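Recall the central idea of this unit: under ordinary conditions, the amino acid sequence of a chain determines the structure it adopts. In this exercise we apply that idea directly, starting from the sequence alone.
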Amino acid sequence: MGKPLSVATHLQSQHRTVTVASACRCGAGGSLVEMGPASEGRRRCRTCDVIVAAALPEEADLARCYGEDYWANYAEEQQGAARDNVWRHIVDVMEAAVPVPGTVVDVGCGGGGFLARCRERGWKGIGFDLSAGAVKHAQERQLDVRLAGWPPCDLRDGSVQVVACINVLDHLPDPFAAMAEAYRILAPGGLLYLRVPNGPLHAMLSRWSRMAGLPDLSIQHLYGFGALSLRFHLARLGFDAGTIRTSPPTQSDAYCRSRTYGARLRGLCKRADLALYRCAQWLGVDRVPYGLSLEALARKPLPAAGEGRL
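Accordingly, the structure predicted from this sequence is:
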């Protein structure tokens, strides 16, 4: 299997897209500008710095794609061991921020691999996913996973301690509303954890690959978030200033098992990425947001009186 499913490309091939308007949906009134040659028509918001695909799918088509096609094509990859090191890392991050396990919500939880890790460590997990197949798989593991999109969700205001959005935000039709919904359900002092591909870096690698005639191994979906755009939106939505840093790479490639040239190149890049991250850890610079994937940690502010800390 080659490059992971790009939803924009998948739906564009079926002529089921709408052209992006001149204004970004970020809520900050930003205009979208072309990113230049070899960028596949992607645009960048002048105000919030988010990268937007040249064409966005109709929401019904997008929901159908994730409800049917994604799980059908990638169920095995979502349940394998490739991502286990990342899931364990995120639980460690949660426990450092919220010492007493509470309720964690996983947006776009798939078959529940991350929630299963949370349960092992004493957390109550709730997941949301569009795929009936993924939800059935998770429920068979006795996980509380609901067949529903995001937003909205049926949880009360201020009712959970952690919301995790792991490699999902860039797939959503309105990621800005998704972050706002996370803010609504988080208790004061609660933690929002985001993991996304480093959009500006992937866009640059994509341009270089195309100009050099090499396979394009970048990960680009509907939106591309970098450190600047994450900081902008977390502050705009009211979160306290958090941490944005390089996320640990997955311990192996979850998508590629073929022996094609592109697959071998992906494997080489994966090993190089892991080696670079370990070197950065040794040097103490792994908190710099340089890598192929970023993680953002932000808290919902405490009340002015300082009460209600988790």
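The radius of gyration is 19 Å.
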